[in-house]
Specification:
This protein has about 140 residues and is α+β, with helices and mostly antiparallel strands. The chain has helices at about 1-30, 105-140; strands at about 45-55, 65-75, 85, 100. Strands 1-2 form a two-stranded antiparallel ribbon. Strand 1 (about 45-55) and strand 2 (about 65-75) form a beta hairpin. Helix 1 (about 1-30) packs antiparallel against helix 2. It starts with a helix and ends with a helix.
Length: about 140
């Protein structure tokens, strides 16, 4: 039973990570046109940093393997240069008429959101399969 709990914990950690990835991608999309933030600069794209996280030890008969989940270790700002768009009538335009725009690529954000959503669904399915396995095992014991 410890191995099933470890597998569920690993999938649960992935659910939390995928939710964070979706939230960051949505924030990036929402700010794709934000030319001036609190610091006076355009919004910078944010990235989620991930790392493996040991969850629990499997049964010793399996050679002491561990379940490995995942965790968010931080959210960083992408330091690629801002995009420049010619718009002399914009209030944030420089003397040459160019506006610094956030370094966000909408199609890339959509792909990130779709990937995170699919990974979330896959981990939900894994948890459902483990739950079904436990239920069937309990039925056999009757």
């Amino acid at each position: 039973m410890a191995t099933l709990n470890a597998a569920m914990s690993a999938s649960a950690s992935a659910l939390a990570v995928q939710r964070t990835r979706i939230e960051v991608a949505v924030s990036n999309m929402a700010n794709a046109e934000s030319t001036k933030g609190a610091n006076g600069q355009p919004y910078r794209r944010r990235n989620v940093l991930l790392a493996p996280e040991p969850v629990a030890s499997f049964d010793a008969t399996l050679g002491g393997m561990q379940a490995t989940g995942v965790q968010v270790t931080g959210i960083t700002e992408d330091q690629t240069p801002f995009k420049r768009r010619y718009d002399p009538g914009h209030p944030d335009a420089d003397p040459d008429g160019f506006v610094s725009m956030p370094n966000i690529d909408a199609p890339e954000e959509m792909v990130d959101m779709m990937g995170a959503a699919r990974a979330y669904q896959a981990n939900l399915a894994a948890i459902g399969m483990i739950r079904d396995l436990v239920n069937k095992s309990l039925e056999l014991g009757k």
